[in-house]
Specification:
Elements lengths: L12 H26 L2 H8 L4 H35 L7 H12 L3 E3 L5 H6 L13 E3 L1 H49 L8 H22 L5 E3 L9 E3 L2 H58 E2 L11 H15 L3 H52 L6 H14 L4 E2 H20 L18
Parallel strand pairs: 5-6
Antiparallel strand pairs: 1-2, 3-4
Helix pairs in contact: 1-3, 1-4, 2-6, 3-4, 3-6, 6-7, 6-8, 7-8, 8-9, 8-10, 9-10, 10-11, 10-12, 11-12
Length: 446
């Protein structure tokens, strides 16, 4: 909508013609805008909807503004028609005609009669204070256009805002509700029901929230609108989707949980077989550790050998419970139990292996000492010292300790070290030919 020029002195014929042309174009623009507003889908929806809250209040005001707009437009049309009639009296307007036209085009000569209902004037937001009590109001064409612009902007903003919310949220809520119904059927098929599984309770809560949200959006769309900061354009802002987005995320979480339950249904038997295998390996490892402990106690002396505990019966009981859940298709209960059992079974197998390693550690030490003794014997032999009586005696002493039962590992280790040191001394000492044969290197006190 346009705005006419400010008031001035008596207009000449050219000024009048230009003003009439401008007002005619302005009249067409105003009429086009009002007809577009009248046919706007949002306005038609507002007229037929059962509104509540903020939307009900603002629509009462906007509807009154639209009615008042048409009253102003009719007065504006009559004033323009009168001006055109005066100008068309004669080709060259007289002084009296020009004075009348100037008054009509620039003065406050447009009267809006008191026939506009009291309800309309009471609800219209742009009437001045005390305007509702007046029988009529007078405007210049400039002020009347300004008033129509104000009413049009506020009315259009309300209509566009409501239409934007209705166009965005209900359709998205319906799509999410359809997805919710599919998820509920799937959840029911795997035993995820309200009161029996947290995901079932979540589905019930999401259903209630979406139902309530849709009812509120339909009846009070303006309650779900976030206006753009600093924007004066009609409909500046966006629909408030915070509640919708929160429930969409919650439904996605439930869907992932149900997918996990479905996965359990598909591979439950394989996972139970793997669990039985892991627990069986843990039991065999513990049995091997108990046998090894008896062997260590019989073969190794003066050694602390840890006690080997038996297999935990609670895991076998939980495994039996998991198998029972599978037989009765209680997938929502089987899923968390399998996850817990798999972790516990791996921990039990690791504990059994650690127990076996701890129990057999003395045997490993003895085996390492035996290997070290034989390695030095082979090294001595390569250097031609295999017949040295001193080394033979040291070797035999260490061997008797390592191959006797029970074996004292600390004494045996000292014997191996003595043999190593003696061999090292011989291997690093200078070689002097001795025709007298082998000598006793133990000394006089040997």
């Amino acid at each position: 909508m346009g705005v006419t020029d400010p008031a001035g002195p008596v207009m000449d014929r050219d000024e009048v013609d230009r003003a009439l042309a401008r007002l005619g174009a302005e009249h067409e623009a105003v009429e086009t805008s009002l007809l577009a507003l009248q046919d706007h889908a949002g306005r038609r929806l507002l007229e037929g909807a059962e509104l509540t809250g903020t939307t009900k209040e603002r629509w009462a005001s906007a509807d009154a503004s639209i009615t008042l707009l048409w009253a102003y437009f009719d007065a504006y049309t009559d004033a323009l028609r009168s001006a055109r009639d005066i100008r068309s009296r004669r080709r060259w307007s007289s002084r009296e005609d020009l004075v009348e036209l100037t008054e009509l085009l620039r003065g406050e000569c447009v009267t809006v009669a008191g026939s506009v209902s009291t309800e309309v004037t009471a609800n219209a937001p742009t009437l001045g204070s005390g305007a509702a009590g007046k029988l009529s109001q007078r405007f210049s064409l400039v002020s009347l256009v300004d008033r129509m612009n104000e009413l049009y902007a506020t009315s259009l903003d309300m209509v566009v805002t409501a239409d934007a919310v209705w166009s965005a949220l209900p359709a998205r809520i319906d799509l999410l509700a359809a997805e919710l119904q599919r998820t509920r059927k799937l959840a029911h098929s795997v035993g995820v029901r309200p009161g029996e599984h947290p995901a079932g309770d979540d589905l019930e809560r999401i259903t209630r929230t979406l139902t309530s949200l849709r009812e509120q959006v339909v009846s009070d769309p303006l309650a779900y609108w976030v206006a753009a900061q600093g924007s004066s354009a009609p409909g500046g802002g966006r629909p408030d989707t915070a509640v919708y987005d929160r429930e969409a995320r919650a439904l996605e979480d439930v869907r992932r949980e149900i997918d996990a339950v479905l996965t359990v249904r598909q591979d439950a038997e394989q996972r139970l077989v793997r669990l039985r295998d892991v627990l069986s390996r843990a039991d065999r490892t513990l049995a091997e550790a108990r046998i090894a402990r008896g062997e260590v106690l019989a073969k190794i002396a003066a050694t602390e050998v840890p006690v080997v505990s038996g297999p935990p019966t609670v895991l076998q009981e939980q495994l039996a419970t998991a198998a029972e859940y599978r037989r009765h298709a209680q997938w929502h209960r089987l899923s968390p139990l399998l996850e817990s059992l798999e972790q516990k079974a791996e921990d039990e197998l690791l504990r059994a292996r650690e127990s076996l390693s701890a129990v057999t550690q003395p045997l490993a030490v003895r085996a390492e000492l035996r290997g070290r003794l034989d390695a030095y014997k082979a090294k001595v032999a390569r250097h031609g010292l295999a017949e040295d009586r001193f080394l033979i005696e040291r070797y035999d002493a260490a061997r008797r300790m390592l191959w006797s039962a029970p074996c004292d590992l600390r004494v045996a280790e000292q014997a191996v070290l003595r043999y190593q040191h003696a061999a090292a001394e011989l291997l690093t000492a200078p070689r002097v030919p001795d025709p007298g044969g082998p000598q006793d290197r133990r000394g006089p006190g040997a």
